[in-house]
Design a protein that fits this description.
membrane; 8 helices; two-stranded antiparallel ribbon; alpha+beta; five-stranded antiparallel beta sheet; transmembrane; disordered N terminus; 7 strands; SPOR domain-containing protein; Alpha-Beta Plaits; 2 domains; SPOR-like_sf
Length: 242
């Protein structure tokens, strides 16, 4: 009786060889993909790409700045200053200021021997959203609405510069933002040109442009309050308050 002999050892070696070939091909593909991404600048260790510049964390988006070349494009610019309380006792004012730290960047101004506690300056629609969130949290507040009528190029440019500054300061109130670059703001502001050099607020416009030009390369979070105070004083000069 004859028996047929199968060489099982050789058969297993063949399967192992094929698996090794497949493994090498897979590893080569993965390695090649990683090398390509590294040299194309797209590799980030497997994490989702998120540019700080594109999200506005360290710069001002030029596209978001107000178009002020035509004063008739928007008849009026409206800004909201959110107010906490008014105190004669500065200690009470500081206590509320500390309370409002959780909601933004509070600051104080002294007028008629009284201290106002204010929580930021916003364009109208954004200010209304902040007020709603404060009301939902049952935090007492009131609003001061400043309106700048764009009757001429001078006032239109003032409104635009204030709006661009507010964009910077509001960004600084975000948790992860430590400083904001000012290069785009400076470049944009220098491009504004009131050729007629007219308007009852022309002195304010010149002051704003000069102060923007003197800004440091970046504004840090700890400088937000003093910049809010500066803008508040400008609004008091040129804006009608309701």
């Amino acid at each position: 009786m004859k028996y047929t002999r199968y060489d099982l050892k050789n058969k297993n070696n063949g399967k192992t060889f094929i698996l090794l070939i497949l493994l090498v091909l897979v590893l080569a593909f993965l390695f090649g993909t990683i090398i390509f991404k590294i040299f194309s600048g797209n590799y980030n260790g497997g994490k989702s790409l998120k540019s700080e510049t594109s999200t506005g964390k360290n710069s001002v988006s030029k596209s978001n700045m107000q178009n002020v070349t035509d004063p008739n494009s928007i008849q009026a610019a409206k800004f909201i200053v959110i107010q906490g309380g008014i105190y004669q006792n500065k200690e009470n004012a500081e206590a509320e200021k500390n309370l409002l730290n959780a909601y933004g960047t509070p600051f104080t101004v002294t007028e008629d021997n009284k201290t106002r506690v204010l929580l930021g300056i916003y364009v109208e629609d954004q200010g209304e959203k902040i007020i709603k969130s404060l009301n939902d949290a049952k935090v007492d507040n009131s609003k001061m609405l400043f309106t700048i009528n764009k009757d001429n190029i001078c006032d239109a440019e003032i409104a635009g510069i204030i709006g661009a500054n507010i964009q910077i300061l509001n960004k600084l109130s975000e948790k992860d933002v430590k400083a904001i670059q000012t290069s785009e703001l400076k470049k944009w502001c220098s491009s504004l040109n009131n050729k007629n050099n007219q308007g009852k607020n022309i002195a304010v416009l010149k002051q704003l442009k000069n102060d923007v030009d003197k800004m440091p390369k970046e504004i840090s979070k700890d400088k937000a309050s003093e910049n809010y105070i500066y803008l508040y004083q400008i609004l008091k000069k040129v804006g009608s308050n309701k």
